[in-house]
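Second attempt. The first submission of Adenosine deaminase had a stray character pasted in from the spreadsheet, which I only caught after the job came back as garbage. Lesson logged: always re-copy from the clean sequence file. Corrected sequence (360 aa) follows.
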Amino acid sequence: MAGITHSDIVKAPKVLLHDHLDGGLRPATIVELAAAVGHELPAQDPERLGAWFVAAADSGSLERYLETFAHTVAVMQTVEGLHRVAKECALDLAADGVVYAEIRYAPEQHLERGLTLDEVVDAVHAGFREGCAEAAALGSPIRIGTLLTAMRHAARSQEIAELAVRYRDTGVVGFDIAGAEAGFPPTRHLDAFEYLQRENFHFTIHAGEAFGLPSIWEAIQWCGADRLGHGVRIVDDITTAAPEPPVLGRLAAYVRDKRIPLELCPSSNVQTGAAASIAEHPIKLLHDLRFRVTVNTDNRLMSGTSMTREMTLLAESFGWGWAELQWLTINAMKSAFIPYDERLVLINEVIKPAYAKLLG
Ligand SMILES: O=c1[nH]cnc2c1ncn2[C@H]1C[C@H](O)[C@@H](CO)O1
Ligand SMILES: [Zn+2]
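This time the job returned cleanly.
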């Protein structure tokens, strides 16, 4: 069924696996927190500041896109700042109809004003707890787990992996590495990934965004990633020569056969140059070939987006309807890092009944 709109999609339950806490602040909150800590911003008016982030991130380069985070990370250096940002994140996602989210951030980036790693994690978790409680009271329940990210150019991945495992029963559901990809291959952090595997813990790796197949291959075959952050460049291993059917190379076939989830982020990919436009985004091909595709926001502030907006763009570009949106949502829920039985409850008791009504 084509023609579904933003106002329809906002009401449908959605699942978000790839969203950065420091990429989703409300512009008005940045302005207030920046005034409190004396951080200078490129614009003072929230509307202009929001537009500045989108324009500055729209550079065609991941490195330049990442520079914009200086202004969000700067206001997330105190318990108050982290707590507020996490709480508002929960409220914003719930208002957008997200029922389950995994939110990531790099604790090592929030130590500039003297917080310890544990204090950072505690502040974020407290903010999420409050935000989720408030959202439930407002009639939009949401569950949130966190992923702790290590920065790939730095050397703290083992420490952050241990931090994640220590908090595994109190809100952290996985681990990730992020930051500039070219020049910083996943195997740089092999010790951390091997440690996590010995601990039976879950992790995703940003791979195949600004760098191609070798990054994806290392993430899966050397590091043992459960999921791929982006992974969009897997299309480099798929040969398309219509009218012949597409031919998958060995790595693409492995990713599809093993049902390795791809955390695709369409708008973010257009901004960093990983895709030319939404209409030309490889998500269509990957969907048609039945890869384990999920749709994500990456950074709602830098892309001026939301889960509803990402899905609306896909519905408009590819004529996708409720069947496709349900497929994406169930793919994401199946790929979450919470226990299997808990995923099933959300699929069977929240997602499927809602889409059954929408499908009519
Ligand atoms: O899409 C991304 N690719 C690589 N790194 C990213 C992306 N989005 C955000 N980051 C970085 C910047 C943040 O400060 C950090 C932790 O959330 O992760
Ligand atoms: Zn990301």
